């Protein structure tokens, strides 16, 4: 027994009927199918006989669909559209991909806002951004066009073939106006809730040690194990977090985030590098864009330091 025992033997008759019903014309259907009008009429009659239903009402100069004809046309039309789209996908040339693997925070806060620009600039390519959670990846094992690394082991990458230094980090505490409607002084940082992106609290420990603050740390600690989560908590007024100011440049410019008064920027132990594995013209262009983007962001941070009197004595800016 056939799996589809109710379907007509000739599937071509269904195609002919769909064309007739779509055009509501034997003549136009025959032109589309490149057959004679009599062949079309014969196929429809054979289909009606096999199904034991009337599909068309034939008039002197026109035709109409019966109720069964309308139902059959609807089903055929939907399924033919789906089949046509499926087969078109098979025939369409696959887009070439530009694969950028990146440290998570950089991918979220630098690459993501620029995806629309990259898509517009490279319409024939599919942009693939892969977040990297591996702290110090093996360059030879990476399968991507560009790899953006955030590392404390600069000697592992600096001067290596294909590796370009992007920038250092510019660290300072930040808070949202929801936390305090008054300007926070640098000494206040010790008593406010501290938000951490790592279990070892390393960014806070390093910043407090280099800031020469007097007094005991009183603020409660909360660890989010993710800079993006720590920044989200900070933006909602949950506390103060130490972060790389270049990653929150838009929030600083709009004053969604602020730095305490009389702050001094510091470098962390971390640096950003870009490894170019594939030397294609587009990979070359994107690397140059990353370098230019970084230079622009550093210039903007320098302007903010001047505007808000943030000290840059301890950093190269």
UniProtKB/TrEMBL annotation:
Keyword Transport among record annotations: no
Gene Ontology molecular function, alphabetical: DNA-binding transcription factor activity; sequence-specific DNA binding
Family, per entry: Belongs to the LysR transcriptional regulatory family.
Keyword match Cell inner membrane: no
Coiled-coil parts of chain: none
Residues of the HTH lysR-type domain: 12-66
Name of the protein described by the UniProt record: Transcriptional regulator, LysR family protein
InterPro entries, A to Z: LysR-type_TF_proteobact-type (IPR058163), LysR_HTH_N (IPR000847), LysR_subst-bd (IPR005119), WH-like_DNA-bd_sf (IPR036388), WH_DNA-bd_sf (IPR036390)
Biological process terms in GO annotation: DNA-templated transcription
Keyword annotations: DNA-binding, Transcription, Transcription regulation
């Amino acid at each position: 027994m056939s799996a589809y025992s109710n379907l007509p033997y000739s599937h071509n008759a269904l195609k002919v009927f769909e064309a007739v019903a779509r055009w509501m014309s034997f003549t136009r259907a025959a032109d589309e199918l490149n057959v004679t009008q009599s062949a079309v009429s014969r196929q429809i009659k054979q289909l009606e006989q096999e199904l034991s239903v009337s599909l068309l009402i034939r008039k002197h100069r026109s035709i109409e669909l019966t109720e069964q004809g309308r139902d059959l046309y609807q089903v055929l039309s939907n399924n033919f559209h789906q089949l046509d789209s499926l087969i078109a996908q098979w025939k369409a040339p696959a887009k070439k991909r530009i694969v950028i693997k990146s440290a998570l925070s950089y991918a979220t806060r630098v690459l993501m806002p620029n995806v629309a620009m990259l898509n517009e600039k490279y319409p024939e390519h599919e942009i693939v951004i892969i977040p990297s959670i591996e702290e110090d990846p093996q360059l030879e094992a990476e399968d991507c066009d560009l790899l953006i690394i955030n590392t404390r082991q600069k000697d592992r990458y600096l001067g290596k073939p294909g590796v370009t230094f992007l920038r250092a980090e510019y660290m300072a505490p930040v808070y949202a106006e929801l936390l305090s409607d008054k300007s926070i002084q640098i000494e206040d940082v010790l008593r406010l809730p501290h938000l951490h992106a790592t279990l070892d609290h390393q960014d806070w420990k390093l910043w407090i040690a280099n800031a020469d603050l007097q007094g005991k740390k009183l603020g409660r600690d909360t660890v989010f194990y993710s800079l993006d989560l720590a920044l989200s908590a900070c933006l909602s007024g949950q506390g103060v977090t130490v972060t790389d100011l270049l990653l929150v440049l838009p929030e600083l410019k709009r004053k969604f985030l602020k730095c305490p008064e009389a702050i001094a920027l510091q470098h962390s132990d971390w640096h950003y590098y870009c490894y170019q594995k594939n030397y294609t013209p587009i990979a070359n262009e994107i690397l140059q864009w990353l370098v230019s983007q970084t230079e622009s962001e550093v210039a903007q941070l320098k302007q903010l330091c001047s505007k808000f009197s943030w000290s840059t004595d301890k950093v190269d800016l």
